[in-house]
Every structure is written in structure tokens, then in C-alpha cells.
Amino acid sequence: MVDYYTPVFNRLNAVSSLAGKVFDSVRVTSAGEAVRENYVVIMNVLPVALDDERYTARQALESSGDVAVDVRVAATSAAGRRFLVDAVTTQLVGHALTVTGRTCEPIRWDLPATPGRYDPTARLHWQDLEFLFMSRRT
After folding, report:
1. Which of 16, 79, 85, 122 is the most exposed place for a label (fewest CB within 10 A)?
2. What is the DSSP letter of 52?
3. CA 5/CA 24 separation, integer angstroms
4. Is residue 120 reached through a cis peptide bond, with omega within 30 degrees of 0 on the bond before it?
């Protein structure tokens, strides 16, 4: 399977405002409680279509198709959530990832975005974002 996660992770960590704040799961303490800090979770970086842009094509892992990048931002305040949304969007939208054996088109934001929400149990503001890009065989 093609590794799209690592280039997204590296891209987000490349900017000082996100460095060290990008994870692959929601953060919890050893007691199972939500960590109350500002951070980003890369939930999925997976193909959503593997059809070589042909209606009748058989699916194959190396086929060309759209790849979804699902990200959740979590923050201790609404302002922190907005800051992370802006930082993630700035780092991803319009950037073409470098992926071995693939040619990737620039990432685009899959609008509309979900609204920001507040979890009173975790006491965190959060928002899910979805980005898409086309990945083709080289």
C-alpha cells in the first residue's frame, strides 16, 4: 500500500506552529482522560477511489484515484481551534505531496467543512477537516 500518511505528517510538522502537535490518535492520559492541549490528529490518509478514473476499471492498490486526508483539530479554546484550522489549511491546500512512485495533484479542501464543536466532558473545542487530492501512477 502506498504511504500517504508520512508525507502529510511531515508537511504539517514542517511549520513551527504545528511542530510537535501532530498525532495519529486523540490524546489521552494514562487515566483515560482527554489531554487538554492544542493538537492535530491525522485520522486517515486513504484512497477513496481506485479506478484509474474509468467507470469500468477494476480496483487495484496502485490505481490512480482520489485520496482523502481526514484531520481533526482539538484545542482548549475556540480561538485555538480556529488557529489550528488555519495552520493546517495553510500547510495543506495547494501543496502537492511527494510520494514515491506517484504523481500527486495539489491538495484541495473538501468543502463544506464541519462546524466547530465543543465537548463538555473533554472540555475541548474540536473540528474535523477533509482534504482531497488526486494520486496517479508515475
Report:
1. 16
2. T
3. 9
4. no
Tell me the C-alpha to C-alpha distance, in Å, between residue 94 and each of 59, 109, 124: 27, 9, 29
Question: Could you tell me which residues come within 8 angstroms of residue 45 by beta carbon, excluding any fewer than 6 positions away?
Answer: 4, 5, 8, 67, 68, 69, 70
pLDDT, tens digit, for every residue of 4-61?
999 999 999 999 999 999 999 999 999 999 999 999 999 999 888 766 566 666 666 6
Which residue, 2, 9, 11, is CA-closest to 101?
2
Contact between 28 and 35 (Cβ < 8 Å)? yes
Q: Cα angle at 86 between 97 and 77, to 5 degrees?
A: 135
4 within 8 A of 67, measured Cβ to Cβ: yes
In angstroms, rounded to a whole number, what is the distance separating the alpha carbons of residues 99 and 11?
12
pTM, two decimals, is 0.89
Judging by beta carbons within 10 Å of its beta carbon (0-12, 13-18, 19+), is residue 97 exposed, middle or buried?
A: buried
Phi-psi region of 136 (alpha: psi -120 to 50; beta: other; left: phi over 0): beta
